Amino acid sequence: MNDNFKLQLQNLGLNPGDVILMHSSMKALGTKKTPEDFIKDILSVIGPDGTLLLPALTYRDVTEECPHFKAGETEPCIGLLPRTFFRMPGVVRSLHPTHSVCAFGKLALELTREHILDETPVGPHSPFMKILDYDGKLLFIGDVLKSCTFMHGIEEAAGAPYTLKKERTHYIIEDTNGNISEKDMFAHDFRGMKQEYQRIRDILDYPDLRTGKVGHADCFLINASALFEKAKEKFRENLYYFVTIVLPEDALPEDI
Known about the structure:
Layout: H1 5-12, E1 19-24, H2 26-29, H3 35-46, E2 51-55, E3 68-70, H4 80-87, E4 92-93, E5 101-105, H5 108-112, H6 127-130, E6 137-141, H7 150-158, E7 169-174, E8 180-185, E9 193-195, H8 200-203, E10 209-214, E11 217-223, H9 224-237, E12 243-245
Parallel strand pairs: 1-2, 1-6, 3-7
Antiparallel strand pairs: 2-5, 4-5, 6-11, 7-8, 9-12, 10-11
Helix pairs in contact: 1-3, 7-9
């Protein structure tokens, strides 16, 4: 196996100065490299003017019953690479109880500092949406398009009726310095829905969607702005394009 990950990432379309939001499966790479070394490969490719972001989601552990989020302690619940990145020196984390993002690089602070202003998980101040202002790209290591958290921001903006709980949840939010704030926010609620974000492949073409291999992993690199515009078009046609309803046929959208 060719273990020159940096060359493969460049061939996929990563460039110096890129803003990259990554979803990843370390297992899919099929390598003995450590997670730290693979993250350093990506940082080497995008260079000192680039910025790497990883979702640091905590929705399984920060709940209505356990509402206290600690930015310096609450571990991401979505995989080895996010848990590793969260602990690496120089990485900063946005303040959101369930959908925080960790970032390293030139724009790390700029992209993360306003997330606390949102009342939803993936609102306009979130790093997920702010990458649109910087020609951001979405990198998927492994066939993990179904985990595209960026899509939640488009769903929220489009007013998809299945996305948010009807009532706010009261959260306690603690930053890395121990400062505590409390905020009532809308949480996601996808009960009765199966997310179908792999359909992204049906609405984008090259060069907005690039495919390739990194290690053993099938990978995707997506222009975030192109996905935002194409997905909005699909939502205007059908608010349920990116989900499958799994409740009985007589369930109404307002019941979901």
